[in-house]
Amino acid sequence: MKNVEQTGGEALVSALIANGVDTMFAIPGIQLDWAVDALSAMPEISVYVPRHEQSVSYMADGYARVTGKPGVGMVVPGPGMLNATAGLSTAYACNSPVVFVVGQIHSEAIGKGYGNLHEISDQSGVLRGLTKSQELVLDRSAISGAVDKAFSASMEGRRRPTAVEIPYNLLIEKAEASARTNAETAASVAPDQKEIDKASELIDAAEFPVIYIGGGAMDAGAEIAALADKLGAPVVASDNGRGAIPDSHPLMFNALAGRPLFSKADLVLVIGSRFMDIMTPEVSWPQEGKTFLYLNIDPADMGGPRRGAVDILADAAVGAEALTGAVKKRETISAGQARKLKDWAKSQIEATGALWNYVAALRGALPDDGILVNELTQVGYLSRIAFECRQPRSLIGPGYQGTLGYGFPTALGAAVGGKGRRVFSISGDGGFGWSIQELATAARYQLPVTLVVFNDGFYGNVRSIQSATFGRNYITELANPDFSDLARAFGLDYARADSPEALQSVLAASATSDGPLFVEVPVGKMDSPWPLLRLRPMGGGAESDYSDLF
C-alpha cells in the first residue's frame, strides 16, 4: 500500500481535528492558502469568517468563555496578527483558552528584513507578550507536535491563549502522513495535604471566615458551594467569578455586599483570583488585621504584595473539595443576616434609577440559559454587580483589559459556542463603532444575538469623568449613522426602545427568535455607577462601620 502524503496545511488541519476542534474562526490570506484548502476538504470543522482579524480573536475568546474549551483562530502574519492582538490581550486577561494559528513569511526570510509581504521585525516577540506559550515552527515535521503542545498548554494550569506560527512554505511542503490519536486532557492538580491541614486549622479558629472567588473558580462552583455550606460562610465574587455559584444561593454575594463582609472578616480564603486592585499595585482589600489564605493554580497569583498565611497550589475544584473534607461544620452568618446584606446591596443598586431599570430589563427578558456579553457602557458597568447570574458562563466581560469595542464580536463567538442559546450584547455607541462591520457576520450566519446599543452621541464614561474631574469636556463627541438604516443595510431586523419597559418588551420578543436583532436605545447623560462597583471603595481604604447590618 502506497504511503499517503500530506501537505503541511493538511497536517495542521489533521492536528486540529485530533485535538477535538469542530469549530474555528479565520480570515483567509495568501500565507494561509494551503491551510484553507485543507480545511475545505475537512467537513469536520466549521469555519466562521468575520470581517476583521480583531473579530477573529474576539470570537475565539467568546467561544472559549461559553464552552470552557479552546477557541481556535487563524490569521495571516504581520497586519493580520497585529489586528488580532486586542482580542488576544483580552483572552489573556480573562484566562481564556484560545489557540491562535498565525501565518508567517517564508521560513528562510524570517528575521532577514527583506521586505517580504506582511513581514514585521519580531512577530514572535509580539505574540510571546500576549500568550502563555508561543512556538515558531521551522520544520514541516514539527507542525503536529506544535499544535498538540499549544492545546495542552492552553488548558493546563491557568488557562490562557497560546500561539503557533507556521511559515507558508511549510504549509505547502509535503511529507508522509503520520498516525494521529486524540490528545490527552490535562490532569487536575491536587493540593499538598499539609497545606490543607494548615488552612483548615486557621479556618476553624476564625470567627468570621469569608470566601472570595475569581474567574479561576468558574468550573468549581459546586465544590466551593459545598465548602461554603459546611462553614455557613459567605462567598464574594469578583467580576470574572460571577456565575460560578448562582446568585440565588443564600451565601453568594456581589462585590458591593462584599464590603461589609470584608470589614467584619478576620479570615479570607481567596480561590481562583489574582485578588489585585485594577487601578493600583495593591491587593483588593487591606490585609492588616486579617488572615489571608490563597488557593490558586498559578504560583504567580500568590506572590507579593499578597501576604498569605497559607498558599495552596491546586485546581480550584480539587482544593475546595479537600478543604470541605478537613474543616468543621459551623454557621458563620445566619440566614437572616445574609438576607439583610443582600437587601442592603440591592437597595443601593436600585437607587441608580434608570441604570438599574435597564439592567432589570435585560435580566427580565433573557432566558435562564441565555448569555449577557457586557461591554464598557454605563449600563454594562452596573451589570457587573447588578445582573443576576443564574448559571456559570452566562455573564462575559473584558476583565482587567477593559477593551472597548470587544463586546459585539465576542458575543458572536459566544453565540457560536452557545449552540442556539440567546446572547444579549450591550454596547455604547462608542464601543459599537469599532465593530460595525460585524453586522455582516451576524447576518451571514444568522446568529442568535440581540445587539443593544445605548446611544448618547458621546464616549459617555470618558465625558462623565472629564466633567467630574476637570469641569469640561474635550474630544468625546461622536458622529453616528442612522442606526435603523445601518441595520437594514446589513439585512438585520431593527427596533428602537425609548424606555426600560420598551426595551424589555423588545428583548423578550427577540429571545425566542433564531436570528439577530439590532436594538437602539437613545439615552441621555446617566449617573455614574462606579462608587458601587469595586470591592474596595473608590479612593482606596475600607469603609468601617457596617455594624447595623449584622
Give the helices and strands, then pairings.
Layout (H helix, E strand, L loop, with lengths): L4 E3 H11 L4 E4 L6 H8 L5 E3 L4 H15 L3 E5 L3 H15 L4 E7 L18 H6 L4 E4 L6 H13 L6 E6 H5 L1 E3 L16 H13 L3 E5 L7 H11 L3 E3 L14 E2 L1 H10 L2 E5 L19 E6 L13 E4 L2 H11 L8 H16 L3 H12 L5 E4 L3 H9 L8 E2 L10 H12 L4 E6 H4 L6 H7 L3 E7 L4 H11 L12 H7 L3 E4 L3 H11 L6 E6 L7 H4 L17
Parallel strand pairs: 2-3, 2-4, 4-5, 5-7, 6-7, 9-10, 9-12, 10-11, 12-13, 13-14, 15-16, 15-17, 17-18, 18-20, 19-20
Antiparallel strand pairs: 1-8
Helix pairs in contact: 1-2, 1-6, 3-4, 3-15, 8-11, 9-11, 13-14, 13-20
Overview of the molecule:
By secondary structure, the chain is α/β, with parallel strands linked by helices. It folds into three domains: 5-176, Thiamin diphosphate (ThDP)-binding fold, Pyr/PP domains (Rossmann fold, 3-Layer(aba) Sandwich); 193-343, Rossmann fold; 351-532, Rossmann fold, CATH 3.40.50. Helices cover 38% and strands 16% of the residues. A six-stranded parallel beta sheet has the order 3-2-4-5-7-6, sandwiched between helices. The chain has a six-stranded parallel beta sheet with strand order 11-10-9-12-13-14, with helices on both faces. Strands 16-15-17-18-20-19 form a six-stranded parallel beta sheet, sandwiched between helices. α3 crosses α15 (407-418). The radius of gyration is 24 Å and the shape is globular. The N and C termini lie far apart (79 Å).
